[in-house]
Amino acid sequence: MKRMKIAIFGNAMKSETLREVKHLLAFMQLRNVEVLLSQELRQELNLRHYEVYPREDENNLKDTEPLDFALSVGGDGTFLTTVAAIGRNNLPILGINCGHLGFLAEVQTQDVDQIMDQLIRGDYTIEQRPLLTVTPSERDHIPAPNALNEVAVLKQGLSSMISIETRLNGELLHTYEADGLIIATATGSTAYNLSVGGPLMMPQTRGILLSPIASHSLNVRPLVVPDDWQIDLSVKSRNGSYMVSVDGRSQIFNDDTTLHVKKAPYTVKVVQTGENDFIHSLKAKLSWGI
């Protein structure tokens, strides 16, 4: 029987995460599971005998050695960091929640042993979650252009609102006069989109959300468009620049930079260990039905 092999990611600056990682390492050792650690965890815990994942070879390419799973130990922010680290390596991710409100990191620490035994015996399902990819005009680039939650176009600091000319498949939709515009996946509907009053979407929904932030017009509402459409954004601001946030990774662009947002050519595999996990999360974390 093939020995299971996993990689563990987590925020090495948080004591709760480090405590849970130590528990997982002891658990995996008892079950003869091979473990690799992120560079940050390996360094913080001083575990030099563990391999690092992902590893870069001399050509600066990500290692694609065959692993079974990645564990993201922390909150939803850690989960997004894990997604970016794995990239196209097609590795299923299980989120273990050491934070607060977590829709991606769904497994609670008190359930970890039970859930890990489920994984070891193959009692789980895989959900394919789409990503968004953002491509700036030719002169610019974004180092990590893919987002599981959202791409947000934002004004800078305390500057006045920005104008965001938005086209869908080349056709003008609207010029948003607002503090910004969130373009979110169904997965990201519970993130930044939720905080600005955007609608929630089941993760299986095939759509892309457009939600304005503090729109100047009360008539402008969030909109869901098909997930195979391209969204083109041209921004004008008083100070000549604006910010783009890709799952929290921010970058400044000049107004002459146009952005093209569409569904990425690959998905993220999210491990599910029970039925209707999202519905359970709505009830437990948003107090639905109470």
Description:
The chain has 290 residues and is an alpha/beta fold. The protein folds into two domains: 133 residues, Rossmann fold (3-Layer(aba) Sandwich), CATH 3.40.50.10330; 135 residues, Tumour Suppressor Smad4, CATH 2.60.200. Helix content is 19%, strand content 37%. The protein has six helices and 18 strands. A six-stranded parallel sheet has the order 3-2-1-4-5-6, with helices on both faces. The protein is globular.
Please summarize what this structure is.
The protein has six helices and 18 strands.
**Would you identify the CATH H-level superfamily of the largest domain?**
Probable inorganic polyphosphate/atp-NAD kinase, domain 2
Instruction: Label the overall shape.
Output: globular
**CATH architecture designation of the largest domain:** Sandwich
Low-confidence stretches: 58-64
Rg of Cα set: 20 Å
Number of strands: 18
Helix count equals 6
CATH class of the largest domain: Mainly Beta
Strand fraction equals 35-45%
Number of domains: 2
Q: Fill in the CATH topology of the largest domain.
A: Tumour Suppressor Smad4
The share of residues in helices is: 10-25%
Average the pLDDT over all residues and give the rounded result: 91
Main sheet record: 6 strands, parallel
Structural class, please? Answer: alpha/beta
Strand order of the largest sheet: 3-2-1-4-5-6
H/E series: EHEHEEHEEHEEEEEEHEEEEEEH
Calculate the terminal CA-CA distance, rounded to whole Å.
47 Å
